[in-house]
Amino acid sequence: MEAAAKEKPAASTWATTSPAERVVLQYQVEQFLYQEAALLDARRYRDWLDLLAEDMHYWMPIRRTMTTANVDREFTARGDMAFFDDTRELLVMRVNKLEAGSAWSEDPPSRARHTVSNVRITDVVGDEITLDMNFHLYRARLNTEEDIWCGRRVDGLRRNGDSFLFTRRDIYLDQTLIKATNMSTIF
Question: How many other β-carbons are positioned within 10 Å of the β-carbon of residue 2?
Fold first, then answer.
């Protein structure tokens, strides 16, 4: 009786989604990602926070150079050291600090350009969507500081009316050596 009362996990519906529905969802997801990039580039961080679900998790592991035999240990694991391991609450604190002008690394503020490409929907389960994409983030600050980060992102989205909310962002940098003076930019 207890086993029958347990909820069965929702099955992936992406594999059985019609081509027409796939095209529409792909378009909606890409437009949502482009809107997010525009908000971040315009430093509209408060509006960006509105795109985050309450259970949002923002994580960037550290990448290490490994031999072929140990390539499975290239990125630190969850729970180990990471550049970011933030909840929505911590992201709100970051935005509050940016808005208060107390973030010395962002006064004067950086100029950033966020680009996403090769966006692939890898799974849809109910209202939850998993994305895999490439990103390129360019940041210029003052007259001499320029930083470029490239890599892969795995984002989780949840349908929210006619739009979405981010539930997850896993950021996998291509770089193993970070030359930036800080990492205050939102990826």
Answer: 5
Looking at residue 82, its pLDDT comes to: 93
Q: How many other C-beta atoms can be found within 10 angstroms of the C-beta atom of residue 98?
A: 19
Closest CA to 126 of 3, 17, 53, 24: 17
Residues in the chain, pLDDT under 50: 1, 4
Nearest to 165 by CA among 129, 132, 134: 129
pLDDT at 151: 97
Q: Pairing state of beta strands 163-173 and 82-87?
A: unpaired
Note the maximum CA span of the chain: 68
Give the model confidence (pLDDT) of 50-87 as tens digits: 999 999 999 999 999 889 999 999 889 999 999 999 99
Indicate the helix (H) or strand (E) that contains 156: strand 145-160
Alpha carbons 14 and 168: distance in angstroms, whole number: 19
123 is written with which tokens? 């799974």
- How many CB atoms within 10 Å of residue 124? 21
Q: Decide if 170 contacts 59 (C-beta within 8 A).
A: yes
